[in-house]
Amino acid sequence: MLGVANDVRKSLMLRLVPATVAMIALGYPGEVSTDEGTKWLWWVLAMIPFVYILWVLNGQLKAARGRESGPVASAIKNATVVLLVTWCVYPIAFLFPIFDETSETLEVIRQAGYTVADITAKALYGLMILGIAKARTAQENK
Question: Is the pLDDT of residue 4 over 60?
Fold first, then answer.
């Protein structure tokens, strides 16, 4: 069983790491460009690996939820929703300065969006994973 889990982890890493690198590499030219059309082009291109990453993560979490029951399955479902929703803040926040390059307010909104997404997508999600582990431990100790 442990060998199967390791194979799944390796498979996920082989799919998600290159997709993550591609997403960042494709998003960066749009981030630093001053041309609106260029920003949109690179945003669209970066969204391809972004959507793929969310699709893979959603599938894996759905599979994990299917292997569990009760409070553990419910906690995994909640964590999946938080992950998907908070990750969607990033591409939306990226777009704000595109509407008006000279607006400092829109840049502040972008950075605030990134900050909110970072806190929820990392810290909150981490706490939710801790909650899943506690629920699973409680379920196993019954």
Answer: no
